[in-house]
Design brief:
5-stranded mixed beta sheet; 8 strands; 3-stranded antiparallel beta sheet; alpha/beta
């Protein structure tokens, strides 16, 4: 079986991008690609670029039937057509990837967990100058504290509200960008409270619903669910 495994990354995000591609035949590595991309871009652009490079190399080798594997749910689902492509910067990359896929007699694209994509992951990380992926080394499974595990700079925390209404903490490094969805532990929650309050006070914004309230400075926190700070109901 002929398999293409791909991965890409950007440091920070957006930032310097790199791709990692592994071409396998009967579980033997025929080709490894580890390369930086020109210019600045996003992690998703790098993932798409890795996929496109792998498809081009496979066509050059004369492959006609392939299995493509990647750990980017966004790229895999967008190429499969199950997810919409909303970002303008990804639309031409999506079109190019689909055009290349159509040139094979048989082509299947599937998502695999990161631990099954370690070779492509390592190739992309190597091109970026890291021994391991700075973003996807299972940071969410361990408590890394408030400092980036790579550069040791102090991180910031913010609430992210998903379309489902679910909230989680986003931990970011000022150098490496997004690191993980941080655990909902008291220390992190207290930190995001203070950081959100400081930013809100600097922005000097007042929600209409709180006009006349004597605690305007913390209204943003109330909207984020911290009614215990303001007392607003």
């Amino acid at each position: 079986m002929k398999i293409i495994q791909f991965d890409g990354g950007a440091v920070p995000n957006p930032g310097t991008r790199a791709i990692g591609v592994i071409l396998l035949e009967d579980n033997h590595v025929l080709k490894e690609i580890s390369r930086k991309l020109d210019g600045i871009g996003t992690n998703n652009e790098a993932e798409y670029s890795a996929l496109i490079e792998g498809l081009k190399r496979a066509l050059a080798l004369g492959w006609t039937e392939i299995l493509v594997q990647g750990d980017s749910k966004l790229v895999v689902n967008q190429v499969a057509g199950s997810w919409k492509v909303n970002k303008d910067n990804l639309k031409p990359l999506n079109t190019e990837a689909k055009t290349l896929l159509s040139k094979f007699q048989s082509a299947k694209v599937e998502w695999i967990p990161r631990e099954q994509n370690v070779r492509a992951d390592a190739a992309a990380s190597k091109a970026l100058g890291f021994d391991e992926d700075p973003f996807h080394d299972n940071l969410h499974k361990r408590d890394i504290g408030i400092y980036c595990p790579e550069c040791k700079k102090e991180c910031t925390f913010e609430w992210v509200v998903l379309k489902t209404g679910e909230r989680h903490l986003r931990q970011s490094c000022p150098v490496h960008g997004y690191l993980r969805a941080a655990p909902m532990v008291p220390a992190y929650i207290e930190r995001v409270k203070s950081e959100s309050l400081l930013q809100y006070m600097n922005d000097d914004k007042t929600p209409t619903k709180c006009k006349g309230c004597s605690k305007l400075d913390v209204c943003k926190l109330v909207e984020q669910g911290f009614a215990d700070i303001c007392g607003y109901r």
